[in-house]
Design brief:
The complex is a heterotrimer of chains A (319), B (303) and C (464). With 303 residues, chain B is mostly helical. Chain B has helices at residues 2-10, 16-50, 55-58, 72-82, 85-116, 122-131, 138-150, 158-161, 169-181, 185-193, 198-209, 211-226, 230-235, 244-248, 267-288; strands at 255-256, 259-260. Chain B has 15 helices and 2 strands. In chain B, a hairpin with a 2-residue loop joins strand 1 and strand 2 (259-260). The chains are: A mainly alpha (319), B mainly alpha (303), C alpha/beta (464).
Chain lengths: 319, 303, 464
């Protein structure tokens, strides 16, 4: 189907007379329509999300344990976080280390798998399902398996390393290797998962005749990838990058289940610190302050990415 | 690439070396794909195997690669008799269906608003939208609970379904927006010149062109809703209303603060239950995935 | 092609369809809530017909879904132990169970409390008496003594004094013991494998040095000799171990860390655990968070492990490939007095309770005599701090190993107090240093000082 087809089909069903309108009126109409289309979310945001969001912002300026009325204490929580909490700043550092180690690998890995599975393979359906399986393996089951694989004394990985003469590290039982182990576990769980699926969907937007034309011009596989495929899927790359960073920075489950923040706080991420303050120490006010500091950090990072995106993300339909 | 192999059979012009080279390339491709697939499969396979073992055998070192005890039937039926699993499956299917329909439809509409129209405050609101993904859920959990309890929605499925109908959340909106931004605006303008209004453009041009995106959204939405744990845990109280993700915890041995907490080791049952929870997602993915790759890929829009 | 199909649908048709779909789906969305809620709503009505004389009261008890908590209480109800249902026909006892552990349970309880919908009874597994805050400063639970007095129930006739003390503050009884046990007092060992290897069986009067020697003999390429397992990871489960060495973690007021009051003994205690992993290498590498000791012991990779009492019944039932023996944990010097620390799961009556008398009756039944003898005999739950239960021969017929625990339990020492109720934080601070030492990154001498400092920093924080 081409665009001509669709427009002719449209003109056949809707031959409305068109009036010339002033530019500003058109813009106003556009704005009204845009707000109308966005309104379900605007309403949903105001009704379901804005309240709790603002509540947590307010509570970050209070001493509040949920059970007793909140007491306003100004910036005390924020000051305490930066001056008196020996766990807060290191936990932020650790979280960024985890994100820095996992996001690039995850992006490259998923894109590679998506391209691989976008080839015309026999049994594509089965291959894709196999790659997707880790996403469907519940984290509790996966954690059990990984604990066995990474066990320093009797685990499979160190057993294999031993066979080729390498003394394996302690993995989850090592302050140095705990985060790389979590990165490894996270990669396995997600390389063929939703990120890959999103890339795969993005790859469908790459017009085949452009690739064919390039081929006729003598472009090799590599050149086609850099000059056509990659630029065409930048919107999905951007999406996966922005959300990949957000989710990596918010990592909670995997550390909670596999290491509980240990050993020796080696995987004590900011999310665990917030959780512990909120639900173990009943310091909901303080936890809210930590959460908002964290939110501002991610927001800043995301804004920078949006600012830079103009230089490398290509939108065919940008307005 | 498989087609290229077919092509070489008919095309006699190619030299022998070229043919051998092509076959080599294709074999290499399959080899890489297969290695990755096996690595991905392994943990799932291990879960399947474990779900048929006794607990003693599950903990054996070195592990057995096929259960000696093979008590698949016993383990699976034990899960069904130990907990109201069927009821939970039905509940989960119910919640997932409605949340999914609402989330997919409404996020497509909202993303259309964000990507195709210019209005004041659009970009700021979009950033705020993304901001909702950044605040750790722990600190909004209780205010949200209070909100829903004011609506009298506690212990109903409303908190799990209704919000999805209002935009489907920031993840969906952002994803859909990215895809819509990839569709050339010329199409809209052409349709507009032909007299189509924006609603019509959405339904007759934009959405049909977004089938891979919608399929992606729907699949991820299904899996997300199906496995949602925190929402059902907090907003539901009655055991018979629970969803499978919450129910799974019934079978999980618990560890707290580094010391094991009273619980009989029953990881073999956990594995069996986990597989049963994963199965619907697996089937859906297997059946639904062809839609990921259908759509405009072959239509050849202008670049 | 689909585009053409879509083109057949006019905008109005579409709007109508969408509207209908939306409206009907929102309507139907609430449907399953009602049928599920219906039986609950009908039940009291139906029973009030049956017993019009007594007014029905509902007692909602919040607890985790666990074999020895909710599952056992439900079994007790089904068996109508002590004739609870017969004696209290007007009480509808509803167990509101939450799957998981405190990470799932606490957010639920906080939500209920904030929304004012908390039920009548709450369960809790305290750490260093953090549960007292639930009565004193959070106001979730109330003093149940008046209700006990009202029905002539004497706490002192039911529970060991020590268990009453740890659950009370300022003369107010906030909590009642449900599961009470000495913390990690027992070593489980693989009888079958020890016999195969020609090793002696461990003995109840062993010292730590004897255990270490034995573990070194038992360690081969294939198997580890001994793993402190259940006690190794926290200032909580290790409590009795440090006391046995003459180290008390905090002062009586719960405000000062006192690890260094007997510094030599504390360093010695730390060094022993350090040597197990790093010097003698008789224990597997410490694993963070998720304890895999049951897997290692069940997989016959460790000969002997320290365990919680509840495992005395569960291990033999679970690991059927080999025979298991039990001995008391060692002492420092032959004949030392055996030290201990109490671990409990408790129930409390909420300040929100609308039927406090019925709530008290239910709680007293959870923690009653026959209920808890049966729990032990039927192998469903651990012991309780009741003299009558510990004096009952049926218990020892069912679980002979409990005879070893009896003298410990009869002179059980309380958990130490963390006065600002930050018990979990205290344990985490301890574990942070302890983990690093076990991984060989810190020497025991250094670790001792750092533990003191970090734990003191937690004690210095404002009350939670």
């Amino acid at each position: 189907m081409t665009s001509q087809d669709s427009s002719s089909a449209l003109s056949a069903t809707a031959p409305l007379p068109k009036q010339r309108v002033k530019m500003s009126a058109a813009r106003r109409r556009e704005a009204i329509e845009g707000i109308l289309y966005t309104s379900p979310w605007i309403i949903g945001f105001l009704v379901f999300i804005a309240g709790p969001l603002l509540a947590s912002l307010y509570l970050s300026f209070t001493k509040y344990n949920v059970l007793r009325p909140a007491k306003f204490i100004g910036l005390t929580n924020y000051i305490f976080a930066f001056t008196n909490d020996p766990l807060f700043l290191p936990s932020i550092g650790r979280t960024f280390y985890f994100a820095l180690a996992s996001v690039p690998l995850a992006m490259i890995g998923s894109l590679f798998v998506a391209i691989l599975l976008n080839q015309k393979l026999v049994g594509t359906t089965v291959w894709r399902t196999m790659y997707f399986l880790p996403t469907l393996t519940p984290i509790v089951a996966a954690a059990l398996l990984w604990r066995w694989m990474l066990n320093p004394d009797v685990g499979l990985i160190n057993f294999l390393l031993d066979k080729i003469g390498i003394e394996g590290p302690g993995w989850l039982s090592s302050t140095t290797w705990a985060i790389p182990s979590l990165v490894l576990m996270g990669l396995w769980a997600s390389v063929g998962g939703s990120r890959m699926i999103i890339f795969l969907a993005g790859l469908q937007d790459v017009p085949t005749e452009m690739l064919e034309a390039a081929e006729i011009d003598g472009a090799g596989t590599w050149a086609k990838f850099w000059r056509i495929t990659l630029p065409m899927i930048t919107p999905t790359v951007f999406f996966n990058l922005v959300l990949g960073i957000i989710f990596a920075l918010r990592t909670f489950d995997i550390a909670f289940v596999a290491t509980a923040g240990g050993p020796a706080r080696a995987t004590w991420f900011i999310s665990l610190h917030i959780y512990q303050n909120a639900f173990t120490s009943f310091d909901m006010g303080y936890a809210s302050a930590l959460a908002w500091v964290f939110l501002l950090l991610i927001l800043l990072l995301t804004l920078v990415q949006f600012r830079l995106s103009g230089r490398w993300v290509y939108y065919a339909g940008e307005r | 690439m498989a087609q290229q192999v077919v092509g070489t059979k008919s095309g006699q012009r190619h030299s022998r070396d070229w043919v051998v080279g092509q076959i080599g390339k294709v074999s290499l491709l399959y080899l890489i794909v297969a290695i990755g697939a096996i690595a991905s499969m392994f943990p799932f396979f291990w879960t399947v195997v474990s779900s048929g073992k006794t607990i003693s055998e599950l903990y054996r070192y070195p592990p057995t690669f096929w259960p000696e005890s093979t008590q698949f039937v016993k383990n699976y039926s034990e899960v069904w008799s130990a907990v109201p699993f069927g009821r939970w499956l039905l509940n989960t299917a119910w919640v997932t269906t409605w949340a999914l329909i609402g989330g997919t439809l409404s996020s497509a509409i909202v993303a259309y608003g964000f990507s195709r129209f210019r209005f004041p405050g659009r970009d700021l609101f979009f950033v705020i939208t993304l901001g909702t993904l950044m605040l750790p859920v722990e600190v909004t959990l209780i205010p949200t609970y209070l909100l829903f309890s004011k609506f009298n929605w506690i212990d109903t499925y409303y908190p799990l379904i209704v919000p999805a109908w209002f935009g489907g959340g920031a993840f969906n909106i952002f994803l859909m927006r990215q895809f819509l931004l990839g569709i050339p605006y010329d199409l809209d303008e052409a349709a507009r010149i032909d007299g189509a209004n924006s609603w019509r453009i959405l339904w007759q041009i934009i959405l049909p062109l977004s089938k891979p995106a919608l399929a992606t959204l729907a699949t991820l939405g299904f899996i997300g809703n199906w496995n949602n744990f925190l929402g059902p845990l907090i907003f539901l109280n009655t055991e018979s209303k629970y969803t499978v993700a919450v129910g799974l915890r019934y079978l999980q041995s618990t560890f707290a603060g580094g010391s094991a907490v009273v619980s009989r080791p029953q990881d073999h049952l956990l594995m069996a239950a986990a597989l049963m929870v994963a199965l619907p997602c697996l089937i859906l993915f297997f059946v639904g995935q062809r839609y990921f790759v259908e759509g405009i890929a072959t239509t050849g829009l202008k670049g | 092609m689909n585009r053409k199909n879509a083109g057949l649908l006019s905008r109005r048709q579409f709007l109508v369809t969408m509207g209908a779909v939306t409206a009907s789906s929102l309507l139907v969305a609430c449907a399953p809530a009602s049928p599920a809620a219906a039986p609950a709503a009908e039940a009291p009505a139906a029973s009030s017909d049956a017993a019009p004389a007594a007014e029905r009261v509902t007692v909602r008890a919040h607890m985790v879904e666990k074999q020895d908590v909710s599952a056992w209480i439900q079994m007790g109800l089904d068996q109508d132990i002590e004739g609870f249902k017969e004696a209290n026909p007007e009480i509808d006892l509803v167990l509101e169970t939450i799957p998981g552990w405190t990470p799932e349970y606490i957010p639920k309880i906080l939500s209920f409390t904030a929304a004012g919908t908390l039920g009548d009874l709450v369960w809790f597994p305290p750490r260093h008496r953090s549960h007292i805050a639930w009565g004193e400063s959070y106001g979730i639970v109330q003093d149940y003594r008046p209700y006990a007095d009202g029905v002539g129930y004497k706490l002192e006739d039911n529970f060991f004094q020590g268990a009453i003390d740890v659950n009370s503050s300022g003369g107010k009884a906030y909590w009642m013991s449900y599961i009470s046990e000495p913390i990690v007092p027992i070593i489980a060992y693989n009888k079958t494998k020890i016999a195969e290897m020609g090793l002696a069986e461990p003995s109840d009067d062993w010292t730590f040095d004897e255990l270490a020697d034995w573990a070194q003999q038992g360690t081969t390429d294939d198997v580890f000799g001994y793993d402190p397992a259940d006690r190794a990871y926290a200032a909580f489960s290790g409590g009795p171990y440090y006391r046995q060495h003459g180290v008390e973690p905090v002062n009586e007021e719960g405000t000062q860390a006192t690890f260094l009051d007997n510094q030599e003994a504390f360093v010695k205690a730390l060094k022993y655990t350090y040597d197990l992993v790093n010097t003698w290498k008789v224990s597997p590498s410490p694993s963070a968070g998720a304890v895999n000791a049951p897997e290692m012991f069940g997989g016959q990779k460790v000969l002997a492990v320290d365990i919680w009492p509840f495992r005395i019944q569960i291990y033999p039932a679970t690991f059927t490939d080999f025979e298991i023996g039990f001995v008391l944990t060692p002492v420092v010097n032959k004949g030392d007095k055996r030290r201990s620390m109490l671990n409990e799961h408790v129930f409390g009556m909420t300040t929100a309770s609308k039927n406090p008398d019925a709530a008290f009756a239910s709680m007293a039944w959870f923690c009653g005599y026959e209920m808890n003898v049966q729990a032990l005999v039927q192998g469903q739950k651990g012991p309780i701090a009741r003299a009558d239960v510990w004096a009952d021969e049926r218990v020892y017929d069912a679980v002979p190993t409990y005879a070893k625990l009896r003298p410990i339990m009869e002179s059980i020492e309380p958990d130490y107090l963390v006065a600002n109720y930050r018990g979990d934080e205290f344990d985490l601070a301890f574990a942070q240093v302890f983990d690093a030492m076990q991984l060989g990154e810190k020497q025991p001498e250094e670790a001792a000082i750092e533990i003191q400092d970090l734990c003191q920093a937690v004690l210095d924080k404002e009350p939670a």
